[in-house]
From TrEMBL:
It comes from the Bacteria. The keyword DNA-binding applies. This is LysR family transcriptional regulator. Coiled coil: none annotated. The keyword Transcription applies. InterPro entries: LysR-type_TF_proteobact-type (IPR058163), LysR_HTH_N (IPR000847), LysR_subst-bd (IPR005119), WH-like_DNA-bd_sf (IPR036388), WH_DNA-bd_sf (IPR036390). Residues 7-64 form the HTH lysR-type domain. SUPFAM superfamilies: Periplasmic binding protein-like II, Winged helix' DNA-binding domain. GO terms for biological process: DNA-templated transcription. GO terms for molecular function: DNA-binding transcription factor activity; sequence-specific DNA binding. It comes from Phaeobacter gallaeciensis. Belongs to the LysR transcriptional regulatory family. Keywords: DNA-binding, Transcription, Transcription regulation.
Amino acid sequence: MKPPKLPSLRALQVFASFGRTLSVTQTAQELGVTSGAVSQQLKVLEEQTGRALFNRQGRGIFLLPGAEAYHKQICEGFETLAQAQHILDRLEDTADISISALPSLLSRWLNPVLSTYQDHHQDLSLRLDSTHKEPERHLLSTTFRLTYGANADTFPYRRHLFQDAVFPVCAPAFLSQFPSVSDPAQMAQLPLLHTDWGPAHRDLPSWGDWFSHCAVDPGTLPKGATYSLSSLTLEAAIAGKGIALAQTSFVARDLQSGRLIRLSEAQIQMPQPYFICWGEGAMQSTNARDLLDWITSAAREFD
C-alpha cells in the first residue's frame, strides 16, 4: 500500500508552533525565522493539504474549527518524534537506572525515599524525570515509571505501591490565627486551597467531597487559589496561605517536622492506587531489582 503524501515537515513544524500561539510574530521568535517565512509556510501547508486551515481577519489569523483537530494530531506527532530523539539520546546516558514519575509524587514522596536509598548505594547513578506524560509503553528509555490508576494498565509489568487518602492540613501559624479551623463548619468559611487535577482525573477528591464525607453543607465555598500540582498546593499551605487537602504520603515528613498540622481525622481514600511499572529486560539488572524492592517496601507505610 502506497503511503499517503504528507506536507513538508517544515510547514508542519510552523503550523504546530503557530497553533499554540496564534501569533505570527511569536512563532517566528520561537523558531528563529522571520514573520514572512512563517506566513509563507502557513500558505504552503494550505496548498499541500488542499484545504483552508485559517480564517484571516484583518491582521489576525485564526484556526478554522476543522484545523484545530488537525493541529492537535500534528502536535502529538511532534511529541512522538521528540520522544524518539530522547530514546536515541539516552543511549549515551551514563545513568544506571532512570525513573519517570508524576511530578508531585516524585517531589513529595519518591525523592526523599531515593535519597535514603542512595545513602546506602553511593556508587549507583540515577536519572529522575518529573513528568505527567506517560512514556512509551515498553519503557525503552526508562527503567521504571511511577504513575496513578489505570495509566499503569498500558505497561507490560506493574506493582502496586499504595492507595492514598486525603485530609485537611494547615500551617501552625494559620491555626494560631484561626483556632476554630478544626471545625468543618468553620473551615468552610476560611481560605481553602485547591488542586486542579485535570480533565483525566475528575474523580479525585475535592473539598466538596470532603465536606460531604463529614456530613457538612458548606454552602458556597469561598474562592481560593487553585494550583495545577498538589505539591504547589502544599507549599502554599506551608506558607500559611490557607487549608489544603493533603495526601498522606505527600505530607508525612511535614507532619512529623511540624511544618503542617492535620486538622481532622476524617479522610477520603483516593479512588485508585499508585503503581510502579517497568518493561521487558528491566529485571535483568540486579540494581533495578534491588531498587524495585526498596521502593515497594517504602510504599507499605502508606498502604
